[in-house]
């Protein structure tokens, strides 16, 4: 599986639609200071579900929407699509290509799509689990991340190893099942309370 394309529209400095094609191998992005190189990697993290506006150098999520210049009006929507080649079916979908899209409105509301079908963030997150691609995945190593990993506590670093081993999905399902058991246990206690009041 590899990254094929990134489409950015209305995101940060990219008011016009920009379509970046990635060939197999290494791609370098060069340009003068402030031309938007970091905005490209931020667009990738954002479309993969980044929730922290601060880590995208903003205060709130709407800050990613193009704010306008002297020559161009601000926009109301930011949209990014990322396309992966899925010939190896690393993503468990029967498609040769998988396109993930995220859109945000000035109201702060976000929408997600998998191959143009609307989905919840949770579904997108589950799709990317154990692939190393998610926003916390090891496929994206930003500045300072290596130091961060070295200084992490064992439990935190284990998350990265779990992702590489492909067991995050099972861990997450186990956590959900445990929460359900806990809720059921609380309901049972409540029912027993009511029963003892009735007796
Ligand atoms: P450097 O080489 O200095 O690190 P860079 O090429 O990585 O720079 P970025 O940091 O990606 O550049 O882009 C910064 C530019 O993006 C700034 O000019 C900033 O005004 C612009 N920018 C950021 N957010 C928005 C926004 N919401 N609307 C319009 N422009 C924005």
TrEMBL record:
Protein's cellular compartments: Cytoplasm
Binding site for ATP: 32-39
Assembly and binders: Homodimer.
Domain notes: Contains large globular domains required for ATP hydrolysis at each terminus and a third globular domain forming a flexible hinge near the middle of the molecule. These domains are separated by coiled-coil structures.
Entry's family note: Belongs to the SMC family.
Main function: Required for chromosome condensation and partitioning.
Name of the protein this chain belongs to: Chromosome partition protein Smc
Native organism: Tindallia californiensis
Lineage of the species this protein comes from: Bacteria, Bacillati, Bacillota, Clostridia, Peptostreptococcales
């Amino acid at each position: 599986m590899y990254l094929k394309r990134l489409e950015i529209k209305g995101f940060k400095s990219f008011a016009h639609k920009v379509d970046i094609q990635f060939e197999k191998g290494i791609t370098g992005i060069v340009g003068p200071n402030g031309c938007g190189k970091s905005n490209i990697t931020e667009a990738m993290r954002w479309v993969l579900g980044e929730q922290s506006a601060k880590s995208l150098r903003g205060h709130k999520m709407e800050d990613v929407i193009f704010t306008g210049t002297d020559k161009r009006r601000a926009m109301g929507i930011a949209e990014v699509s990322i396309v992966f080649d899925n010939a190896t079916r690393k993503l468990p979908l029967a498609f040769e290509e998988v396109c993930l899209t995220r859109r945000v409105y000035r109201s702060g509301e976000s929408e997600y799509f998998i191959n143009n079908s609307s989905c919840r963030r949770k579904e997108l997150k589950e799709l990317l689990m154990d692939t190393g691609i998610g926003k916390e995945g090891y496929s994206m190593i930003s500045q300072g991340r290596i130091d961060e990993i070295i200084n992490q506590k064992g439990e935190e670093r284990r998350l990265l190893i779990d992702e590489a081993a492909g067991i995050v999905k099972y861990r997450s399902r186990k956590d959900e099942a445990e929460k359900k058991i806990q809720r059921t246990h609380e309901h049972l206690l409540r029912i027993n309370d009511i029963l003892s009041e009735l007796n």
